Amino acid sequence: MPSAATAEFRFYAELNDFLPPGRRHAGFDYSVAGTRSVKDAIESIGVPHTEVDLILVDGRSVGFERVLRGGERVAVYPVFELLDIAPLEHLRAQPLREPRFVLDAHLGKLARHLRMAGFDCLYRNDYRDSELITASVAEHRIILTRDKGLLKQRLVTHGYFVRETGSEAQLCEVVRALQLQPRLRPFTRCRECNTELQDVPKAEVLERLPEKVRGVYARFQLCSGCQRIYWEGSHYARLRRLLDRAAPAAANSGGR
After folding, report:
1. In terms of DSSP bridges, do strands 54-57 and 60-62 run parallel, antiparallel, or are they unpaired?
2. Distance between CA atoms of 109 and 117, rounded to whole angstroms?
3. Pairwise CA distance, residues 77 & 51, whole Å
4. What angle do CA 120, 199, 206 make, to 5 degrees?
5. CA separation (Å) from 122 to 140, 144, 191, 212, 216?
6. Using CA atoms, how far apart are residues 42 and 172, in angstroms rounded to an integer?
7. What is the CATH number of domain 6-77?
8. pLDDT tens sequence across 82-122
9. What's the order of all strands across the beta sheet hosting 142-145?
10. Is this structure's pTM higher than 0.85?
């Protein structure tokens, strides 16, 4: 039984990714002296509030604002994908109708991969935290980041902490974690500037094509933003395999 100055916490499923090994998949006591709310306690333990969907205090569903006095048992859960918890108090913001993203400076390759998959992604390698948050709030974008502290900011409502470090594994992780498979539109957006691509007659871009491309490919797309021309070159098969790993059914149903 936790003492009057502490509460017993237990975190479930992928929330354990944020905990040190000794606290994973087990209950542990944590001081709540001076804590303003259960949200403050959870984030001081190391778990961003954007990752949490359900909190049970002594078996009852509570909101982030619940104050802990000490002696409670607190169970913290991530988003439920398969279990209907409609009668309980959801804590995560409602999913955005059309998922769009803004990515921190460490996720440039992931931004390119997500654009390739058809998603609207803002990215600069010099974004400040305040700019990421402003874009997220003003344009209803999900923040993707490797910075847990950013997701603890009060104004952040939609965010995801990317666990993987390799860009291809990150794409697979984000697509699966955010259930993006049905929304993939492969090869419809410029990987460099994020503009949607348009089909263009070969004759209109012929003079800009490399000599070895002119006689081999018939279908081309043009980015009206940066004027890049796209065709199904040698890289296409590799990118298609990457999309197939992320979302096998969706990757084969869209794009060019």
Report:
1. antiparallel
2. 13
3. 9
4. 125
5. 12, 10, 11, 33, 34
6. 28
7. 3.10.20.30
8. 444 445 555 655 555 688 999 999 999 999 999 999 999 99
9. 121-123, 101-103, 142-145, 159-161
10. no
